[in-house]
Amino acid sequence: MTNILKLSLLCLMVFSFTVNIYAEDTEIVDPEPVLPPAEIPLDPIPDPVPEPDPAPTVTFIIRNGDTLIYQDTTPLPDIENDRNVLSVLQSIDESSDAFSITNIQEFSFGKYLKCILPTDATELCDNWQYAVGNLTPFSSIDTTMLVGGETVGIYFGTSHQLVLSNERITEGGSLTATAQKYNYETNAWDILEGVSVGVTLPNPDDAWNPIVVSTHPVDDVGIATITIAEENTFTLGIVEDFYFPSYTVVVEKSEEDGENGSENEGTNGSNPTPHSFSTADALSYLKSMQSEDGSFGDSDLYTDWAGIAFGSMNVGGSSKTKILSYFESNNEISSLLTDNERRAMTLLALDKNPYSFGDDEVNYIKAIVDEFDGEQFGDADLVNDDIFALIPLQNAGYNENDDMIIEDITFIISKQKSNGSWEESVDVTAAAIQALEAFDGVDGVSNALSQASAYLENEQNSDGGWGNVSSTSWAMQAESALNTSWSKNGKDGLDYLATGQEEDGAVSPTEETLENRIWATSYAVAGASGKSWGEIMNSVSKPSNQEENSGNNNENDSDDENDSRDDTEDEIEDVAPEETQIKTVVCPVGDFFNATTGEWCTEFVVINNPPIIKQETKIVKKIEIVETLAEEKTLGEQTLTTTETLTATAIGTLPTEQSVPPEKTSSTTPIVLGTLGGIVLLYIAAKFLIK
To answer: Which residues form the Squalene cyclase C-terminal domain (predicted)?
Structure first.
């Protein structure tokens, strides 16, 4: 017992000692804070090196009319001083085998690009122009600098031209002059605004400064209407271009003045002011009649003809965009051949390709060609479908080397009447002239054209027209195709159209239907343009896959073809051929379309009308283009043409081909080459040589 107490006491003492030591001698120390590792400074990250700017590039287009010599994009040189147009062109010459620069001349004002030799072609000299974008710089080709992104056009021909509605008028008569500028990208002529057309006479004291009779600003479609009161031979030109190139207009004494001059002497009477046809007003009317979907008269027929009218005057902007949008939305082959022919004409007039139009790439030319039966197109009892097949095909790469064309020409000529007409109709005859004129070298065509011309001349009425707006407009286009003009009693077709033009611009009475007013006005615009259909339409090349359709589609005399037919003949079920239902459209003899429906006529009936008393017709042939070969003077290696060639007697209203500028050689094209000492030549050198 005693031992147990001792042990318990000992344990208690130990416990107390341990507690005292813990409580009195031990301090509670807060742990030291853990510091984060020291930051180690890093080297700065360099900014990313920017990618070098891409080398600036320019696009060069070199062409001679419809011949595209070169087109590509090239980088500009590193040295800025080498970034002028000529230096870049020379670098292209070094790397390309498409052409060679063969002659560059240097004058006090800068360098002059004289000659380029296209590969496998003739050297072209003294008529090269250049443009940067849509601008023609007024500086030499070696001082015009490029910065990148531009398109440069180097083209052979003239930058501007005038298209005259007539080259011969009578005293007090009017004509229209349409100013146009060359588009080197599309090889077409666009509207030229902001210029004036000047009427001049030669100055006997200063050949460089003609006597200005009058000036006429062009309107918003590039047209100036000019009335000349006095008899004389005048020269017309664009004032801003120093009247170059120039065009001659002959103003003759009116027949009435010549016959009745003595009776009118001493009287106070005066001739009435002649009517003046306004193409601008006619176009304004058409634009106002265009529907939101781009159509006219809610019909393909009127829309097509309105499109041809737009094409004849190079109408662009929203009007052209809308009509093309309509065509793309209504883009399908018609069961009627003439519909496809008309649509092909319209697309060509609007600078579109009828071989592949729209997203569906519809081929209207194939639709025409497929209707050829070995001798003619479409219905063998009709000739109008053959005439209107030939018109677009001649601008679609077909020519006299195609058997199909020769056969069709033969068929058309076989249908000509003894009086020179086709179908006893002014309309059909005028259309046939336009179809055949491009093939004047084919046997029989020249004689057929001569007879047809005599027929139209004889059919002209004393008011200058051919009975109605439609016939008159087509006859005027036949005049353009033949490069001639007809007048009777001092009046011509333009006078007739002017008398029928209403205040709203339409060339049809206000009481007529909307469709007929659109139709007639469309015809009148094209007729007043001074262009045939072939000249209104642009040209396209025949695709290689179309070549096989150029011959006689009915000729199946090859052994391979016969063998193939024999091999498969037994496998083909006898199926009766489907007959083509041709709608009968009856019209009076002489009409081309049904006046109510607008459809092509298929049958004709004779309607007894009072005979028209024929009056003596005066035919005024257009003067042929005469270019005087200048007396040449030498100045070092430079050729200097005399002033006679600067005032070119360019009588023809239009070049033979629509796809101009016309090719000219140094012997026939008036070009001033400059002189170091001549003040006068310095005055015009920049404009004529290096614009």
So the answer is: 392-506
